[in-house]
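pinning this so it doesn't scroll away 📌
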Amino acid sequence: MADTRKASRFIVPVAVAGVAAATIGLVPALAASGDPDLPEITAQQLIEKIAASDTQTLSGTFRISTDLGLPLGGLADLGGLGGDGGSSSADPTEKLTELVSGTHTLRVAADGPDRQKLTLLDGSDEYSLIHNGDDVWAYDSKSNEVFHEKAPEGEGVKGEGVKGEKPSAELPGTPKQLADEVLKAAGDTTSITVDGTAKVAGRDAYQLVIKPKQSGSTVESVKIAVDAATGTPLKFTLASVQGGKPVVDAGFTKVDFGKPAASDFTFEVPEGAKVTEGAAEKGAGEEKLPEDLAKDLEKGFGDLPGFGGLGKDGDLNVIGEGWTTIAKLDTGAPAPKTDEAPKEIQGLLDSFGDKVTGKFGSGTVFKTKLVNALLTDDGTVYVGAVTQDALVNAANAGK
């Protein structure tokens, strides 16, 4: 399916299906009595089916629940995450951070690469995000604020360059080739299987299950419920080895693959609403930042100011592979002494972290259900989607 770079980072209608398909190393719904009786299919055939899906139109209701296991109510509580408090409350980069915690219901609609709409329902208030041709609009009914930004011009179809130019790197040309690449990338670290069928939003679906073969990962499984008729991912579930609620449980509760009405994507600024223009409207010069940043990332952070060659000749090292990959960063500065902080701050830090010791010395492990980080007292950081024991073992091995 075609997409536009800037709009697609906002648009969840396709994002829901697209993320699941693109991160095929991850997801399904839990099986239950009355599961549909479908023809048998292998994991490779199901991956091919997802890759061959040409779903361009859909509408429905989507429910997402996120539980990172943070001791506070969510990331939004951590001191103003998502912005500086001075921008529009309708700005998608701020508003959609709400999806990282709690349970939310969304109405979604999509009509090809140029028209998508998402409405986040929060009691009597609504937040709408609309991409219609050259424009991206967002409206927050609670504050009566509007955010507007022009969609980028000249974007090619996925797998092509700008204005239809050939991509610089050769991509898999058929669903089978893509499936082969996915299975090859999984290698010895990952198990990919089909685990029965399920009913999702009234649709018959296969369940694709991805699990780490390695011990030490915080990921128990990633499951994707795939529509048997269209190959469209309908539900995504990421489970932690800690058990309990899934880290992410997102899926359609209602879905229709018919073409939505054109009026669904029209937007008129409500009377009296405050309108904020996005960066693209303020000046084309600002658009260079992502491209320049991408180039620096490709160089391994080598030329970024203040990073001193991290990831190349500097202090960032990668330990292990696959699901148990750990990043090691030597900050060069001792960790702050929390016992010298006010009691309120000490209590907050203690709620996030566990004190640990080993051959490396001592430190604190800061934990969520998915990503954990060990900060040693000498200022070395170990971080990854791995267990506390795996971080401690990596620190011990580094001594």
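📌 and the second one:
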Amino acid sequence: MSLRPTLETRQAVPTMEGAGVKLHRAFGFQDPSELDPFLLFDDFRNERPEDYQAGFPWHPHRGIETITYVLSGSVEHTDSLGNTGTLGAGDVQWMTAGSGILHQEMPKGNGAGQMHGFQLWGNLPSDQKMTTPRYQDVQSKEIPGVTDDDGTTVRVIVGEFWGKTGPVDGIAADPQYLDIQVPAGVRKTFRIDTYRRAFAYVFQGQAAFADASQPTGVLLEKEVAGQEVNIRDLSGDRTLVRFGTGDEVTVQAGPEGVRFLLISGAPIDEPVAWHGPIVMNTRAELELAFKELRNGTFIRAAH
């Protein structure tokens, strides 16, 4: 077994998307090889309806998959193929844009006006860029969960983990998408296949992720449940942790426990030509996509 080194820890950055939705971006529109096959990750969390109600009106996608995971509130969606639906708390939508689709996503808060969810973009390999678009809307009750003896819980959204298999199927890049909660003071190790690129995104509580240079992951200033933890080195809310190569990730939960996403996938290792919501392999393919968008043939280009 080999511990994955922590290559980078950084905070998600406030930004604005759609018609004026305030959100935090952990990565995106940077070096696409950094977390290949993943291109972008947004945390849309707001307490004020005026910060999200304008939503994401009609816009195109081609060449990627978008993965939306809702924690609170709901998201209403409509697309150019006639699909409509609503994602509620705990639900997931995995949209394969493929050859091209136009859609809109309109967030709605819960009774207290709160809205929280995530959107991840996954790249498609060249031989699947122009596949037929499809949706997989998955209700919360369909997502398996498992609880370990120490109180650690895992929701398996995609992939296989601890004997459970997530409900989303037929996706490129062999992804694994886990929602993990580790109780206060618990130190836990999670296996990830070596061939995958991996990152964690902390969105509740705090934790220290062990590095290869400090394999215990145990730090020095405060004792939590019998273990010493240095509060200065804990990753907290809206923190991205990018891992190097290995087959294990070890996390030491902080004084209030921690909840984070652990996401990994097989790199595609292909050229990327990217502008806005369209991702192709070459500049010529990208230019053709926007030409079709302008002349009205964009959603008829599947083959």
